[in-house]
Amino acid sequence: MSLKINLLVCLFIFHLLAAASVSGRKIGIYEIKKGDFSVKITNYGASIISVLLPDKHGKIGDVVLGYDTIEEYKNDTSYFGATLGRVANRIGGAQFTLNGIHYKLVPNDGNNTIHGGPKGFSKVVWKVSKYVKDGPCPYITLTYYSADGEEGFPGAVLASVTYTLKDSYKLSVVFRAKALNKATPINLSHHPYWNIGGHNSGDVLSQVLQIFGSHITLVDKELIPTGEIAPVKNTPYDFLKPRKVGSRINKLKNGYDINYVLDSNEKMKPVGIVYDKKSGRVMDVQASAPGVQFYTANGVKNIKGKGGFVYQPHSALSLETLVFPDAVNHPNFPSSIVNPGEKYVHSVLYTFSIKK
């Protein structure tokens, strides 16, 4: 009996020390830089807080929305630049059944769970495992240990994200994860709010967008997928050919917030291309994920951002590559389940260029 008590005491002390080490981890800002191309990341939420690159006149501009202080990121409800997990996007009813066991999650979007719950991966301090600031291939790798039962999810997970500057004006983002002891859904993504005209340039409605997805996953009034996959042809969601973001946005209630089924079966799939005529900047996105959530910052209202600039609806767009939302409740969707021993990898590549 005494041996059992001693063991329990040791385990309790271990968990206290582990909690203290996580809560005591310092929050910092880390820059990776290659010439006049620079990305800043904070280990709070493994978030991108700035992406600086020149326009067609050589003027450097920041092309992601964000804040001036870490404290503002802590209080943020828009997920500016954040890494999303354990499961990005929504899970309907904050529940699912896996291997005969019913799991109840922590709801934080009405009755649903979004981006992993109230304390998802965007609201924790990640460990900086590796960091090379500059040179031919600057990068940073951040890791996070998610305990069994965190936000209601089964099993422990070890997750990482690596940001790397490759070649000229290429940003690689690679998410990796392992299920350590139980099968669990894993769907990592991130949420940069892109305005390639500059974070303080106003709305993105005149920017030209192409999305390489001819179908979308239909949703109900709470934005939970119904399970139906529908073609975009002859709808406001059709961006198969380049068109302005705002060309048909007035046909929608608030704006775009929908998952596209990417057409390609390649390992790295074409996702989308964004072009801003005024700055000349072009952003090309590729990813290994089967879907992309296109969002036009509909919920951003009167948010004081960098340099005091006030962000409004449609002041940016997000192209969040991922396994389809609520996949854990739809057998006809690609699976988000990762079993112990399996490796989860999700790669994204942003290529920036100038069109004069």
From TrEMBL:
InterPro entries to which the protein is assigned, alphabetical: Aldose_1-epimerase (IPR015443), Aldose_1/G6P_1-epimerase (IPR008183), Gal_mutarotase_sf_dom (IPR011013), Galactose_mutarotase-like (IPR047215), GH-type_carb-bd (IPR014718)
GO biological process: galactose catabolic process via UDP-galactose, Leloir pathway; glucose metabolic process
Pfam families assigned to the protein according to its UniProt record, in alphabetical order: Aldose_epim
Signal peptide location: 1-19
SUPFAM superfamilies: Galactose mutarotase-like
Documented EC number(s): 5.1.3.3
Keyword Signal set for record: yes
Catalytic function, reaction form: alpha-D-glucose = beta-D-glucose
Residues that, per the record, bind beta-D-galactose: 89-90, 191-193, 257
EC category name: isomerase
UniProtKB keywords: Carbohydrate metabolism, Isomerase, Signal
Domain of life: Eukaryota
One example GO MF annotation: aldose 1-epimerase activity
The protein's annotated pathway: Carbohydrate metabolism; hexose metabolism
Record's keyword annotation contains Lipoprotein: no
Active-site residues annotated for this sequence: 191, 320
Entry's family note: Belongs to the aldose epimerase family.
Protein name: Aldose 1-epimerase
